[in-house]
Write a structure and sequence with these properties.
Elements lengths: L4 E6 L4 E6 L3 E6 L5 H17 L4 E6 L4 E4 L5 H4 L3 H5 L4 E4 L6 E4 L3 E7 L9 H18 L4 E4 L2 E6 L5 E11 L2 E9 L19 E2 L2 H5 L5 H16 L5 E4 L10
Helix pairs in contact: 4-6
Enzyme class: transferase
Subcellular location: Cytoplasm
InterPro entries: aa-tRNA-synth_II/BPL/LPL (IPR045864), BPL_LPL_catalytic (IPR004143), Octanoyltransferase (IPR000544), Octanoyltransferase_CS (IPR020605)
């Protein structure tokens, strides 16, 4: 076996670390996916990665309207009125990721990396920074100056009263990551107004379309986001577009 090496950016120290290339796959899902279906696939992929039967796998997709409530969700963050949220046409799911309540819907790209953490980062905090770096690079491509805000994971726009454009919430089980991050591309942001996104009462949301004044093509953004993620991770994985999320379309 050849000893080919890749270079991965260590964003915590701004140095580069050479390491062996790792096998993996990236899938761009065309059809929007109900949250429950995507979660079922995450669980299956996670089980396969833990057991060694699958390589690292990344899913990029859009969700049908859904509110997800993470482990840090407080009653004040969403009001506790489940039926009122459902009347807005959205599903609601309690989930085991970090963070509080957020919204997913059409026009937002959600990235689910199911990876062996120790192959890519020294711990969860560095992994979160890698995901933030991925979003920051994508935004720079569109001429948008994103930034980090201390104590508030994710990517933000602006200085005086920053608005959030990318949200992150992960979980590590048996050394393999679950959940991931979302990037607002060209979506209806009004569903965020009935919650405190990520648990912050003063949290405003924005999107790429709102920042640049035009609507990007979603599939192109998915492709570019996948490319930036593989570059940040320092890997060369095939990126495959698939029509829907089903077990038959996810080869190892």
């Amino acid at each position: 076996m050849s000893d080919r090496r890749a270079v991965v950016l260590d964003v915590s120290s701004e140095t580069f670390e050479p390491r062996l290339l790792l096998p993996g796959r990236v899938f761009l899902v065309h059809q929007s996916v109900p949250y429950a279906e995507a979660w079922e696939h995450q669980v299956q992929l996670h089980r396969g990665r833990v057991g060694g039967g699958r390589p690292d796998t990344v899913l990029l997709l859009e969700h049908r309207p859904v509110y997800t409530l993470g482990r840090r969700t407080d009653l004040s963050h969403w009001g506790g009125h489940e039926e009122s949220l459902r009347r807005l046409g959205a599903d609601l799911h309690w989930v085991n990721r970090g963070g509080s309540v957020t919204y997913h819907g059409p026009g937002q790209i959600v990235v689910y990396p199911i990876l062996k953490l120790s192959d890519h980062a020294r711990g969860p905090k560095q992994f979160v920074r890698l995901l933030e770096e991925t979003a920051l690079r994508l935004l720079r491509q569109w001429g948008i100056a994103g930034r980090r805000v201390a104590g508030r994971p994710g990517v933000w726009i602006g200085e005086a009263r920053p608005a959030k454009i990318a949200s992150i919430g992960i979980r590590i089980e048996q050394g393999v990551t679950l959940h991931g991050f979302s990037l607002n591309v060209a979506m209806d942001l009004s569903p965020f107004r009935v919650i405190q996104p990520c648990g912050f009462a003063d949290c405003r949301m924005t999107s790429i379309a709102d920042e640049i004044g035009t609507t990007p093509e979603l599939h192109r953004v998915k492709q570019d986001l996948a490319r930036h993620l593989t570059e940040v991770l320092g890997v060369h994985w095939p990126i495959t577009a698939i029509p829907s999320l089903s077990s038959s379309t996810l080869p190892t």
